[in-house]
Design a protein that fits this description.
heterodimer; A: 139 residues; five-stranded parallel beta sheet; 5 helices; B: mainly alpha; elongated
Chain lengths: 139, 365
């Protein structure tokens, strides 16, 4: 299974990526929003799961003002992901404590989307979470 | 043994937290830098320190079945994250990669307690003014403005100020005004004013004052003087301040009007966008000030209250596009049901002026 991990913080996410790789997943890491979008737009690029940070630089794809200076880049990015890949599973993985953000993702189809807080989740726990999510019946 | 490892981690994190509280005042960053252990003074040292903690916590979590231990691990994981991001922002050593600084700023600004601490406020102001990366500067500044607009009530913003400081900045502004060859906005609808590079230190001093808009000097004379000295980046900082004031529904109309005055002087696409935003969403006095600003920029300084506006000289395709865009945005604004008849009247006047400029350009082309 192939995971596209989009986060502007490769150093801290390194342990999470390691756990996933050790768990048998193929992980492609993008710290740049524009590169991630290019990969997602490419229909030949296999993606089973997207792990999506919320707070990261907007890149050229999104305006500074529309993403609150990058604090909410993951929101319009999620919309774009859905437009290219309507059935891909997504884990929104963030430290942002905004309740409305959690509600926004909780309102999405639970078979396709989960919201997970980084602070609450150690790498080993994250890998178990991904295992459970991916083992649920596909659409 | 897991318990011993956890105790060691807990002790280290408690020391950092203790220092954070001890130094939590303006000017505390220097104290913290001098007191914290040498390993934590550089980015590489901190990265190693916190990576080790993260790895240890992850290992212990896989070795233990106890719920109590799992809860302790989770708390320590949270605390380690907070400490690392806090130190990255406050220590601000030049070796930190900009992506790391950004990630840490992003973390800190989402934490209300950290954001309101004097230590973090001071650190963000330093980053906004001194960091080498424009995106770090702007991002730090944006969050200072958001915080001010949300937290500083009208009661916190006074009419009082230091008369000496007020006179000082008025004098500075007039000195630079006298150096100009023409009156009216320094920038145009398309191109922002050029930074007065000889005034760089003064600009930094002004931005520090603007970062805390509580007194009469900071709220009035400081934006005006920035409008007279600044360039494109100062315009961006002022647009962020104005946008935050409006988006967070701040009641400080006087401050917002002075920000629009500064933006009309600076000009450029970002200023025009911010003025249009204010014309659309701000309170009536600020809307009218924003429309005045747009009129000044669109007519290169001629104000229809005192004289009949001459059409602006549109001498390039980019300029024509800018005027057409302005015309479209004003038409949309006219159609807004929430605007008062007087604002509508002023929008109509400005729209006529812009259309005359466009027609004259077609005739000349």
């Amino acid at each position: 299974m192939r995971i596209l991990f989009i986060d502007d913080d490769p150093r801290r996410m390194g342990l999470y990526v390691e756990e996933l790789v050790d768990g048998g997943y193929e992980v492609v890491f993008h710290s740049d929003v524009d590169a991630a979008l290019t990969a997602l737009e490419n229909p030949t690029e296999k993606v089973d799961l997207v792990v999506l940070d919320i707070s990261m630089p907007p890149g050229a794809a999104f305006k500074f003002e529309d993403t609150l200076g990058g604090s909410r880049t993951g929101l319009p990015l999620y919309d774009k992901i859905r437009s290219f890949r309507p059935n891909v599973k997504v884990v929104a993985f963030t430290n942002v404590p905004d309740r409305r953000l959690a509600e926004h993702f909780s309102n999405e189809d639970n078979r396709l989307c989960r919201f997970v807080r980084k602070l609450d989740t150690l790498p080993s726990q994250f890998k178990e979470l991904v295992d459970d999510f991916m083992s649920e019946t596909k659409l | 043994m897991p318990a011993v490892r956890l105790k060691r981690i807990e002790r280290s994190l408690r020391e950092i937290d203790h220092l954070r509280r001890e130094c939590n005042h303006f000017g505390g960053a220097a104290e913290l830098a001098g007191t914290v252990s040498p390993a934590l003074r550089t980015w590489e040292g901190r990265a190693d320190f916190f990576d080790t903690i993260s790895s240890d916590l992850n290992d212990v979590s896989q070795e233990t079945q106890s719920e109590e231990t799992a809860a302790t691990i989770k708390e320590l994981h949270i605390e380690a994250n907070m400490s690392e991001h806090f130190l990255n922002v406050v220590m601000n050593d030049k070796t930190v990669p900009s992506s790391e600084t950004n990630a840490s700023i992003r973390f800190v600004v989402e934490n209300e307690e950290m954001l309101s601490s004097p230590l973090i406020q001071e650190a963000l102001i330093d980053l906004a003014i001194n960091d080498e990366q424009p995106e770090v500067r702007r991002f730090s500044w944006l969050h200072i403005c958001r915080y001010n607009s949300r937290k500083l009530t009208l009661g916190d913003r006074t009419e009082h100020g230091n008369d000496v400081e007020l006179d000082r900045w008025k004098t500075v502004r007039k000195q630079f005004l006298r150096k100009r060859t023409s009156f009216g906005p320094r920038g145009t609808i398309l191109i922002p004013a050029t930074l007065r590079s000889e005034a760089r230190d003064l600009i930094n001093e002004l931005l520090r004052l603007l970062a805390r808009p509580t007194g009469i000097v900071e709220r009035t004379e400081v934006p005006l003087t920035l409008g007279e000295l600044g360039g494109a980046e100062v315009a961006l900082f002022l647009t962020d301040a104005l946008r935050c004031e409006i988006n967070e529904h701040s009641k400080d109309e006087e401050y917002q009007v002075y920000l629009t005055s500064a933006l009309l002087n600076l000009g450029g696409e970002d200023s025009v966008e911010a003025l249009l935003n204010a014309a659309e969403y701000a309170s009536e006095p600020v809307r009218l000030a924003a429309l005045s600003g747009l009129e000044a920029l669109a007519t290169s300084g001629a104000v229809s209250l005192t004289e009949y506006s001459e059409p602006a000289m549109i001498d390039s395709d980019e300029m024509r596009d800018a005027y057409e865009d302005l015309s479209n945005r004003l038409s949309v604004l006219m159609a807004q049901p929430s605007i008062s008849s007087y604002v509508k009247f002023k929008v109509e006047e400005l729209l006529d002026s812009v259309r005359i400029s466009l027609s004259s350009a077609e005739v000349l082309a």
